[in-house]
Amino acid sequence: MSCICKFFVLFFISQNSLTDLINKLQVAKPHFVRCIKPNTSKEAFKFVPDYVLAQLRYTGISETVKIRKFGYALRVTYHEFLVRRVQS
Q: How far apart are CA 24 and CA 21, in angstroms?
């Protein structure tokens, strides 16, 4: 396969991946988006688990996941907070 063909194949793969991500974000309505880098050398298809885990810990994502597993919401509106406060 020539270099030009590889470029177009990678382009279409990344384009489809980006389109898929945008569609998921539009449906999910996230509060924030974090970019996690898979490696420090910017190599394709190279995943360094310890590097990714360190980023997740540093950004607080792993703590957020733990809190969500316990059933707590990420953000409570002021009205919801007042209602819960009055009921307790």
A: 5
User: pLDDT tens, 7-36?
Assistant: 555 555 666 777 887 788 778 766 667 788
CA distance 13 to 35: 19
Q: In terms of DSSP H, where are the helices of the chain? A: 3-28, 49-59, 61-69, 78-87
Q: What's the predicted TM-score (pTM) here?
A: 0.47
**What is the rounded distance in angstroms from the CA atom of residue 14 to the CA atom of residue 44?**
11
For the segment 43-66, the average pLDDT, to the nearest whole number, is 88
DSSP letter (8 states) at residue 47: -
